[in-house]
Design goal:
By secondary structure, the protein is an all-alpha fold. It has one domain. Helices cover 72% and strands 0% of the residues. The chain is built from 4 helices and no strands.
Length: 75
């Protein structure tokens, strides 16, 4: 799995960029990014599944349902 963040500055930058966007805007961005990754051959369903397996046990029922919706949209 790639290293996605170099440090706190990267996370702060992402929060600044995406923090004010609505759920619909974030979903649209996610779909656009994953679509481009699929075209480029850089999308890894196994990486997505690995992250799902790491994150899912930490979520409550509502959060898990939302994550499932998101994953269905990008797979």
């Amino acid at each position: 799995m790639e290293k996605y963040f170099e440090g706190i500055d990267d996370i702060d930058e992402l929060i600044g960029e995406y923090g004010s966007k609505s759920d619909d805007e974030l979903m649209q961005e996610l779909i656009e990014v994953t679509s481009q990754q699929k075209l480029d051959g850089t999308f890894s369903e196994s990486d997505v599944e690995m992250m799902e397996n790491l994150i899912m046990p930490m979520l409550d029922e509502a959060q898990a349902a939302r994550l499932t919706q998101i994953l269905e949209a990008i797979k």
